[in-house]
Design brief:
mainly alpha
Length: 81
């Protein structure tokens, strides 16, 4: 348990039960929001990947991604490394 968690537990021990219920409600709501944000981020990543797959890009057998990247960096910035 981290120091901040220990501090929170110590403070909660001092509260009456009705106040603890309010804290529990707040914690549950916050955990739900965190989970929703994770799901949204994952959904966005999956959608982006699906859009890439839908492009059906076909590269030649001799395609060298590293050489392409190096060339693009050289063209844009004047350096490849």
């Amino acid at each position: 348990m981290t120091a901040i968690q220990q501090q929170a537990v110590q403070l909660i021990y001092q509260l009456p039960d009705d106040k603890i219920r309010a804290i529990i409600t707040l914690a549950v709501d916050e955990l739900s929001l965190i989970e929703l944000r994770k799901q949204k981020e994952l959904s966005e990543k999956k959608n982006a990947f699906a859009r890439l797959e839908a492009l059906n890009l076909v590269f030649p057998d001799n395609f060298d991604a590293d050489a392409e990247l190096s060339g693009a960096l050289e063209e844009k910035y004047g350096i490849a490394d």
